[in-house]
Structures are given as C-alpha cells and as structure tokens.
Amino acid sequence: MLKSLFHWKVLVNILLAAAVFTGLVWLTFRWLEIHTNHGKEIPVPNVMNKSVHDAIKILDDSGLEYEVDSFKYDPKYRPFQVLQVYPSPGSRVKDGRTIILKVNPRTWAQVSVPDVLDRYKGLAFRQLEQVGLKVGDTIFEPSIQRDAVIRMLYNGSTLKPGALLPRFSTIDLVIGAGPKRNISVPNLVGLTVQQAKAIIAQNLFEVGLVEYEDGGSDESDIVYYQDPVSFDVRDQGMQIDIWASKKTPAEMSGKISQLNSIYRIKIDTTTPPPSYYEPPVYREPVAPRVSEPKPETPRTETPKQETPKSEVPKATTEKKPKTTVEQKPKTSSATTPKTTTTTSPKPEEKPKAKKVIVE
C-alpha cells in the first residue's frame, strides 16, 4: 500500500493540485489589490471648525464621499460649523470612503407644540416647559372660562397645537379672566342671520335658538325678533335667541305681537292692588287686668322700726323669728305701698307698731 502511495503518478497529481491552489490564492489577492486600490490610501483632510460648505468642497477634491449629520445645537459655536469628523482627521482611508460630518445646526431642534387650549393655566405652563418651550406674556381676556388658556400666540400670530417651533421658543398665552358683567344687548332686528351671529360673537354673547319662519337654514334671512330685547343688560356668555324670515319686520307684526305676549309679559304697577272689605267681628269686652305687684323681699331694717325692743322679750325673738317676719309683710307691708302709687298720692304714713303673738 505504501508503494502505491508513493507512486510517481500520485506525486504528480499532488503537485498539480498544490500548484493550482497556490495560483488561485495569488489571483484572489491580486484581484483584491486591484479592486480595493491597495496601497493607494488617502489621508482624511482636517475640516474641523470649518463651515459645512467648505468641508464638502475639500472632501470632493480629495475624492472622498461625505455624509452630513446635525449635531446637538450649541450656542457657543457658529451655525453649520463642523464639530466632529469620522474617521478622525489624518487617518488614511481608501478612495471613495464616506466621511461623516457632525455639524452644529442653525438653531435648536424643532418641537411640537402641545394642545393646552381650554386647560388650566398651571397645567398648561408645565406641559409647555416639559417640551422645552417658554411662556412669555400672559394676556387676560374676558371669558366665561376663568383661568383657562383661550389662545396661543407666537410673534403676534395665533399658534395652533401641533405646530413645530424651535426648542426654547417663547410663546404668549391668552387666559380667561372670567365673564364680563352688565353688557348691553345689541340690536339685531333688521340684520341678516349671518350678520347677527357675527355681532353676537363680537359682544361676547352666545348664539342661542335660531328659528326660521320657513323651516330652512338660509343665513340671508332677516331677523325680525330677538330675545332678550336690545339694550337690555346681560352677562357675558348668555345666549341670544333670534327669529328670522324672508319678510321684513314690518310684515311680521302679527308674529311679533304673538312673541311679545310670550316673552314680553309686563306687570302693571301703576294701579294699586284691589282692597277687600272685611266686616267687623264682635268681641266681648274684657276687663282690664291689674298687674299684681311682685312681692318684695322685706328688709331686715323694717322689723326693728315696727316693734320696739322693750316689748319683745328675748326668749320670743330667739325661738320663732321667722314666723313674725314671713306672715305679716305679705299682706300689709308689701301691698300697701304699691296701691298708693297707682291711686292718688297720699301723705306717707308712719308704720304702726305690730303686735307679736307669742304662744
């Protein structure tokens, strides 16, 4: 078996196979050198801090491709200034290699304005700050939506939600200051429905019922009646109802009278209210009541004036002092002074000495 392996024919085949393999490898690398321009590398030019237009011109002259990408805006650098280059300047690349340029944009990146209409002003401020927008002036305007955002303004023009603005832009907010009081109702009779609606909105009112005589919806019809009446005083946001017809208000006098009977009810205050006669009711005479005077508490000095000390023994005063004071003054001393005041004045009498019965 070993003799057959080292036969000259086998050795020739092995040598031919090795030569073919070596030739294929050499041809492959040669093709790669030609295709990739091996040994023909180009150094990346230094375009740092140059404007993007100058950097593109230099790369085109060098035979290099380029790709421009916006970098985060930095106010310390000029707009469209090259801040980064990849691969870095000085490194060697093949002809046709793409160079990435990071450029400072002209301004901040644009952000979408959030929808803060009809929302409370505190919540609107937070939502605008979250997306990177600043709140400038707050303009208060009469509105039934107190402390709610009515409009957004940017450079004096109305701004709609979803619009794109540069980051850190300043916008103004129009905020409701509450309803305006005591506004005079405009006169709408004789105007078209379209004109009446515009005047109602201008005077801070709302359009209420719009009734057409023919049941249509032609805004060129003439208003012949309104409620509330013109020059009446109402608050902002109140509704104004109008009735319209293709006829003139003079031709609708009958309908106007009918509506007046419903919406213009007047109360006559000139005539006094009717008086009703009530027959007298007989009542029995009632005798006048004499108010009984309230008994007064006797003073301790009165017994000393009434009874002499010589007649009352010590034993009697020590045993029953309460019976002499409680019984007698209720009938005589408490009542007699009051009766004299109600009748004709009499000379004051000296109190008589009262007898004290001692058992």
Overview of the molecule:
With 359 residues, this protein is of the alpha+beta class. It has helices at 2-5, 8-36, 52-62, 121-130, 193-202, 253-263, 301-306, 314-319, 321-331, 336-342; strands spanning 41-43, 65-70, 82-86, 92-94, 98-103, 110-112, 134-141, 149-154, 157-159, 164-166, 170-176, 183-184, 206-212, 222-227, 233-234, 239-245. It has a 4-stranded mixed sheet, with helices on one face. A 3-stranded mixed sheet has the order 2-5-3, covered by helices on one side. Strands 13-16-14 form a 3-stranded mixed sheet, with helices on both faces. β8 and β9 (157-159) form a beta hairpin.
Question: Outline, from the CA principal axes?
Answer: elongated
Main sheet overview: 4 strands, mixed
Low-confidence stretches: 306-344
User: Distance N terminus to C terminus?
Assistant: 176 Å
Strand tally, please? Answer: 16
Question: How many H/I helices?
Answer: 10
**Mean pLDDT score:** 77
As a percent range, the share of helical residues equals: 25-40%
Biggest sheet: strand arrangement? 7-11-8-9
Report strand %. 15-25%
* Rg result: 58 Å
Broad structural category: alpha+beta
Spell the H/E element sequence.
Answer: HHEHEEEEEHEEEEEEHEEEEHHHHH
How would you sum up this structure in a few lines?
The protein is of the alpha+beta class. Helix content is 29%, strand content 21%. The chain has a four-stranded mixed sheet, with helices on one face.
